[in-house]
Structures are given as structure tokens and as C-alpha cells.
Hints:
The complex is a heterodimer of chains A (124) and B (278).
Chain A (H helix, E strand, L loop, with lengths): L5 H31 L12 E2 L4 H14 L3 H29 L3 H20 L1
Helix pairs in contact in A: 1-3, 2-3, 3-4
Chain B lengths: L4 H18 L3 H11 L4 H25 L5 H24 L2 H13 L3 H7 L12 H5 L3 E6 L4 E6 L3 H18 L4 H10 L5 H23 L5 E2 H21 L5 H25 L2
Antiparallel strand pairs in B: 1-2
Helix pairs in contact in B: 1-2, 1-11, 2-3, 3-10, 3-11, 4-8, 4-10, 5-12, 8-9, 8-10, 9-10
Amino acid sequence: xxxxxxxxxxxxxxxxxxxxxxxxxxxxxxxxxxxxxxxxxxxxxxxxxxxxxxxxxxxxxxxxxxxxxxxxxxxxxxxxxxxxxxxxxxxxxxxxxxxxxxxxxxxxxxxxxxxxxxxxxxxx
Amino acid sequence: xxxxxxxxxxxxxxxxxxxxxxxxxxxxxxxxxxxxxxxxxxxxxxxxxxxxxxxxxxxxxxxxxxxxxxxxxxxxxxxxxxxxxxxxxxxxxxxxxxxxxxxxxxxxxxxxxxxxxxxxxxxxxxxxxxxxxxxxxxxxxxxxxxxxxxxxxxxxxxxxxxxxxxxxxxxxxxxxxxxxxxxxxxxxxxxxxxxxxxxxxxxxxxxxxxxxxxxxxxxxxxxxxxxxxxxxxxxxxxxxxxxxxxxxxxxxxxxxxxxxxxxxxxxxxxxxxxxxxx
Lengths: 124, 278
């Protein structure tokens, strides 16, 4: 089988990631309004605050809380996590693609980007 | 005014609409408007930055499948913008908001490049002598130009200068929570000699990555509020889709007038905020 073009793979990753994320955000906004009985935003609401020390551990937490106790905060946090994973996955896809094409110059370049993003996601 | 999901969605939709219409990007508009509504500047920056991933990736998906985006150029430049954005976002958390207002106003001024660009005709990009480093990086491309119905071939030059320049673009983007699209396009066209359409599409693609890099810092800061970020993301994406539909139908003169009015207003507002803040 011929390998699909990198452009097409990336194009689909981007659109699927963004659409899924926006659906979760919209669902979360509806849940919030129903739950709180108001559409007012409280910036000091600690439940709505995202504080992730290690992004990958945070993903596990968010998925677990959506499954066990779906609330506006967990659904919307999952939406934001998916949003951040979208460009991240397109770098992962590029690394794999360049490796399969034996273009090692670009494997190194994309790996540098991936390593910096990963380090920053873990280290804060 | 009280913060409200509907209000935030409406202003974000308006910002996204205007942003894609005048090529400024939603962030540059939504951040000053959020501060007008009473959102603290750093919170406006952090929440707007993460939503930029949505607004840029939507259109990036179309451009990349149309082969307008140059993925290799983007990947090479992202090495630099990612470093810049991570540093920029870290600086944003550390410096007093007062300075950020002034940086914001100063950086918005670089958008005046967009006006000059709309007025100048595109020139030929064939037969450029490529330097060794740019050739080693395989930085060249082809896309089909619909307006002239022919393939446009181009070669990138001076990649060794374009990279570090993009680090500055990333720094500003991360620090101010914006895409810095006009600045990125200027680097692509003036330093790398990339043709306009490939340059806009590639800049749009890179903005998603810069926004992710900045967000990796902000997500740990506690400044991101899911309800605020969600409202901006949904509103801005709808707005920017609508704007990109309307853009081809608007006259250049109308776009230019709108652009100038909005830009000057935003610059004045941010300077005023900077002066007035304690």
C-alpha cells in the first residue's frame, strides 16, 4: 500500500482534533450554564482552574474524572487537553513519517521540537 | 461589565471575524477587549494563547491539504519559535503587567507591515540562487496558484537568518499570547523570500505550534480557566470561519480602512492601559 502524504495525515489530525475539542467545549459550556443556573463567569472559581504540573499525568486525571464524575469542569478540561494534543500529535506524526521516508535530517529536526514540547509539558 | 459566557463568545466571535478579515489573528484583538471587560491582562494572555490552537488549526488543516503550507520550512522554523514561545510565556509570568501593555502596543505596530504587503504586487520567485544551508535543509516548494492558474515554484534562502528571527517572533507571541502572524509573514517574505500565499499558510501553521509551546507554560500557572478559555475558543473559531468566508468578497480598500482603524484603536487602548495601571 502506498503511504498517504504527510500533508493529508496532518490535515486530518488538525481538523479532527479541533472539531472534537470544540464539541467538548460547547458541551461543557451548556453543562456549566445548567449546573450553575447562570452564564456568568467567576474567575476565582477554583473548580474551573487548570493547574497541571505534569501534563501527561494531568491527562490521566482528567480522563479518569470525566469517566467517574463528568462535570462541566472535567469535560472542558478534556476539551483543552485534546486541543493541546492536536499540534503535539502532528509533530509525533511528522517524526514517524520522516523516519519511514528515511529522511533522517528531518527526523532530528522534528525530534528537537518534540523533545522541547515534551520537556516543557512535564517540567512545569 | 460582568463576565458572561455569552458576552465572551460574542466578543471572541467578533475578534475572530475581524482578525481573519484583516489578517491580524484573533488574539491581538481579543486580549485588549478582554482587559476592557475586566479580565486581568495575564489571564487574558494565557486563556487566549490556548484558544489560538483552535483558530489557527482550523484553517491550517485546509491550507496544508491544499499544499500551500511548506511543512519542512515550518518544521525547521518551529525549532526556533518553540524556544522563543516557552521563554516568552515564562517572561510574561514574571514581569509586571504594566510592561506587558507597552510591549503589546509596540508589537501591534509591527502589523502595519500587513498594509504595505496588501498593496505590493507579488514578484517572481523563480531562479533564485539558493545558499548551501537552505539547500541542505531541502527548503523549497511548489503550490498551485488559483488566481493565475499556474504552479508557483520557489526556493527558500537565508535559512540561517530566518531561524533566529523566528525566535524573536516566538518570544513575542509567547509573551503576549498572540500569534504574531504579521511578524512571521514578514520574516518569511523579507528574509526567506517565500511567496505570499505559501508564507501566510506556513505562518498560520506555525502559529498553532507557537500557541502550544506558550500553553505548555501557562497550563501550569493556574491562569487558565476552562469556562473562559472554552467561551473564547468556541466564539473565536466561529468568528474566524465566518471572516475567512467573507474576505474574498471585500474590496482591498475596505479591508485596509478597517485594518487601520482597528489597529490604531487597539494600540492607543493598550498604551492607555499601561499608563493607567499601577
